[in-house]
Write a structure and sequence with these properties.
Elements (H helix, E strand, L loop, with lengths): L8 H17 L3 H8 L3 H8 L7 H10 L5 H12 L15 H12 L2 E6 L10 H9 L7 H13 L12 E6 H5 L5 H15 L4 E6 L13 E5 L7 E6 L2 E5 L2 H16 L4 H14 L1
Helix pairs in contact: 2-3, 4-5, 7-8, 10-12
Length: 283
C-alpha cells in the first residue's frame, strides 16, 4: 500500500468521519482491524488520511460500526472513490495548503453561504480588489507569490460559472462595501461587479446597513459549505494564523443558527441591489 505524503482536506475529512464512526461504535482500532482483516496500523493510516480504501471495505467498516444512515455512507463512498484532480493542484507547493483546501472545499460544496463584514467575499472580488488585499500583507509578499494568490482567487470564481454553478449566498456588511482597499476606481468596479453577479439566478447578495439597530454579530464572519449530507457540512473561519476548518456536529449546528440570525437582519436581495447601486453613485 502506497501511503500519501500530503492528504487533501477532503481525504482528511473522510478519515475523520471514519474515526468518529468507529469511536461512536465503541470499537478500538485493533478491534476494527480484526473485523476488517487488516492490521491496527492500517486502520490508523486510514483514519489519518494517509491511506485510502475501496468502496467494499468502506461499506464493511460502516456495517461493523452499525451506521444505518445510507445517505451518509453513500456520501463517504463518493469521497473515497472520487478521482478528481482539481485546478488547485497546480498550486501545490507554490501556495500555502489552506488555499488549496478552500478551493477543494468550494469545488465539492453543494451550496456556499458567506457572511463577511470587512471584506468583499473572495469569490466575488475583482482582480484589482484582490491584489490590493494581498498587497497589504506584512511582510510584503514577493511579486510572483502575490500574483499567484490573485490568480488562485480568480480561479475560485469557477464555482459560480459554468452549466451547473454552485448556489451561492453572501451577506456583506456596509462596512465592507465602503472600505476602499485601493482607490475609488477599484471600489466602483468592485460594486459594479457585485451588481452584475447579483443578477444571476444562483447568486444571492444581501447587505447589512450601518443604521441597523441592535446588531452585535460583526464577529460572525464565516464561509459555510454544504456537504452531500448535512453531516459533511464545513465552516471556514479566518484567523490570525490562517483559515480554520470546522466540522464538529455541535459547532455546525451553532454556525447554522448564527448564519440564520445574521441573514434575518439583512436586507432582501432586491433591496440590497438598490443599496449597492446607491453606493456606486456616491463614488
Amino acid at each position: 500500500m502506497v501511503l500519501r505524503s500530503e492528504p487533501t482536506m477532503r481525504q482528511v475529512r473522510l478519515a475523520t468521519e471514519l474515526r468518529r464512526l468507529r469511536e461512536s461504535s465503541g470499537l478500538s482500532a485493533r478491534e476494527a482491524a480484526a473485523l476488517l482483516g487488516v492490521s491496527a496500523p492500517q486502520i490508523s493510516q486510514i483514519e489519518s488520511g494517509l491511506a485510502g480504501l475501496s468502496e467494499e471495505r468502506l461499506r464493511r467498516l460502516a456495517s461493523h460500526y452499525v451506521c444505518t444512515d445510507e445517505s451518509f455512507v453513500d456520501a463517504l463512498v463518493a469521497m473515497a472513490t472520487g478521482r478528481v484532480r482539481g485546478w488547485w493542484e497546480d498550486y501545490r507547493g507554490r501556495l500555502p495548503t489552506p488555499f488549496l483546501d478552500l478551493a477543494e472545499l468550494e469545488y465539492h460544496a453543494t451550496c456556499l453561504r458567506e457572511a463577511q463584514f470587512l471584506y468583499v467575499p473572495g469569490p466575488l472580488q475583482t482582480e484589482d480588489y484582490a491584489r490590493a488585499v494581498f498587497a497589504y500583507r506584512v511582510p510584503e509578499l514577493p511579486a510572483d507569490e502575490l500574483e499567484l494568490r490573485v490568480r488562485h482567487r480568480m480561479q475560485r470564481k469557477s464555482v459560480l460559472d459554468g452549466p451547473e454553478p454552485t448556489p451561492y449566498e453572501a451577506i456583506i456588511h456596509e462596512a465592507a462595501l465602503r472600505i476602499m482597499v485601493s482607490d475609488r476606481a477599484t471600489s466602483r468596479a468592485q460594486l459594479d461587479h457585485l451588481l452584475e453577479r447579483s443578477a444571476s439566478n444562483h447568486v444571492s447578495i444581501r447587505v447589512i446597513p450601518f443604521d441597523l439597530e441592535g446588531f452585535a454579530g460583526a464577529a460572525s464572519a464565516m464561509t459555510y459549505a454544504g456537504g452531500a449530507v448535512p453531516k459533511l457540512d464545513t465552516v471556514v473561519r479566518d484567523g490570525p494564523h490562517g483559515a480554520s476548518f470546522i466540522d464538529a456536529e455541535g459547532q455546525l449546528t451553532a454556525y447554522r443558527e448564527l448564519f440564520r440570525k445574521v441573514k434575518a437582519v439583512s436586507l432582501a436581495p432586491r433591496r440590497s441591489r438598490d443599496f449597492i447601486h446607491r453606493l456606486t453613485k456616491e463614488l
